[in-house]
Design a protein that fits this description.
single chain, alpha/beta, UDP-n-acetylglucosamine1-carboxyvinyl-transferase, Chain, 24 strands, about 25% strand, globular, binds ligand EPZ
């Protein structure tokens, strides 16, 4: 298995161009199943989860091509016969594949999709996905690890209140409702920026969607969809990751190709910690900060502080003058990076879903293990500030969601390399 070697105490300086969002691309690719006309996606992130989703769509019959050089995806499903089975072999590595359930069921009235299974950060159930699809008229049963869904007369628009806030379930139900007969009202939706980007995509295809409230949406189903070109939004988690990297290491680091107002909560928290930021319309400049203040944060659904940035800000908290805390409210097991950071000399205690980070603490290079996508990048951040060398094992986690991480860091004078 490949590993990353990071040499510490290097100041990052220069410009980091942020890639497209993995978590916007995946539901948009799933939604492409609905449309037989030409689709062009721009600013696509070249990360393994996107390659896996393309492979899944190809497997079920989509006429899909990825242009690696221009970071575009072209889809044209006219007269294509779709297989409505999404196999475990493809879903076991990329849970978000379950989002093909809604479009397959809505378009073809039948679908057999593997239960995605859990991962390091939690059991990741899909009960809310199934709740919403049943409300739209689907008959669903679980057999031998698969979701068997059918809607003999097609899905019918209705009123739905999702039992709790779920990004994936909101996406699955919105996509399914986009091709259903009639109008659907959904309450208690997630409203992450990636969902807004998915909605822009669906509206450009000809689906009428309006927000009636902060978490309340109306969708008028439409089967007569048209060709479109769509720009994938920037990856706000990658942006936050590199802004934190800048706060940890840099003299001056520019994080560009972003929309700072989308991450205003994160920027507000970093400013409260004393991070020196200059915020412009399409980029943020971050200056290395000596005096970091401790802070207490909760991870919450958007527009709260994102769980996907929790591991990264924890590294910054190891430099703070005092005790910081993080309450992880979204996933039941998202502190897997803590034992690894403690092996590097951090002083972090966990009590239930709350962690206490005692700072400031000098970190020392060590051999560590990546456990999930965001935990892996927190170990890279720790390696950048630690004394000596850090070796990070199981780098495949990182390759799922960060495009060209090493190249971006090396371009800003960081020392990071990969070995088998
Ligand atoms: C999406 O996962 C993201 N993944 C995650 O990013 C992100 O951490 C998460 O949203 C929260 O923001 C993609 O967009 C591909 P949820 P998702 O449904 O949709 C529970 C990354 O690092 N739940 O909002 O799976 C669930 O267990 C990944 O890029 C149910 O109980 O998250 C969790 O506790 C990691 N039943 C909570 O809801 C369900 O049917 C939030 O999950 C669905 C979810």
């Amino acid at each position: 298995m490949q590993k990353l070697i990071v040499k510490g105490k290097k100041n990052l300086t220069g410009v980091i161009k942020i890639s497209g969002s993995k978590n916007a691309t995946l539901p948009i690719l799933a939604a492409s199943i609905l449309n037989d006309n030409r689709i062009e996606l721009n600013n696509v992130p070249l990360v393994n989860d996107v390659f896996t989703m393309v492979k899944l769509l190809k497997h079920i019959g989509s006429n899909i091509k990825i242009d690696l050089k221009r970071k575009k995806i072209f889809i044209h499903n006219k007269n294509k016969i779709f297989e409505t089975l999404a196999p475990y072999s493809l879903l076991k590595t990329m849970r978000a594949g379950v989002i093909v359930l809604g479009p397959l069921l809505s378009k073809f009235r039948v679908a057999k999709v593997s239960l995605p299974g859990g991962c390091a950060i939690g059991t990741r159930p899909v009960d809310i996905h199934l709740f919403g699809l049943k409300k739209l008229g689907a008959r669903i049963k679980i057999k031998n690890g698969y979701i068997l869904a059918e809607a003999k007369n097609g899905l019918i628009g209705t009123k739905i209140r999702l039992p709790s806030i779920s990004v994936g379930a909101t996406e699955n139900v919105i996509i399914a409702a986009s091709y259903a007969k009639g109008t659907t009202y959904i309450k208690n939706c997630a409203c992450e920026p990636e969902i807004l980007n998915l909605i822009d995509f669906l509206k450009s295809m000809g689906v009428k969607i309006v927000w009636l409230g902060k978490r309340y949406i109306k969708i008028v189903g439409n089967k007569d969809l048209k060709s479109l070109k769509h720009q994938i939004m920037f990856d706000r988690i990658e942006a936050g990751t590199f802004i934190i990297a800048g706060a940890l290491t840099s003299k001056k680091l520019v994080v560009s190709k972003i929309v700072p107002k989308v991450i205003k909560k994160e920027l507000k928290i970093l400013k409260k910690m004393g991070v020196n930021l200059k915020i412009k319309k399409k980029h943020v400049t971050v200056f290395g900060t000596k005096n970091i203040k401790p802070i207490s944060i909760n991870t919450e659904p958007y527009p709260g502080f994102p769980t996907d940035l929790q591991a990264q800000i924890m590294v910054l908290m190891t430099k703070a003058n005092g005790v910081s805390t993080i309450k992880e409210n979204i996933f039941e097991n998202r502190f897997m990076h803590v034992p690894e950071l403690n092996r590097m000399g951090a002083k972090i205690k966990i009590l239930g879903n709350k962690s206490f980070i005692f700072g400031p603490q000098e970190l020392n290079g060590a051999e560590v293990m990546a456990t999930d996508l965001r935990a892996s990048v927190s170990l890279v951040l720790a390696g950048l500030i630690a004394n000596n060398k850090t070796v990070i094992n199981r780098v495949y986690h990182l390759d799922r969601g960060y495009e060209g991480l090493e190249k971006k860091i090396r371009k800003c004078k960081g020392s990071i390399s990969r070995s088998n």
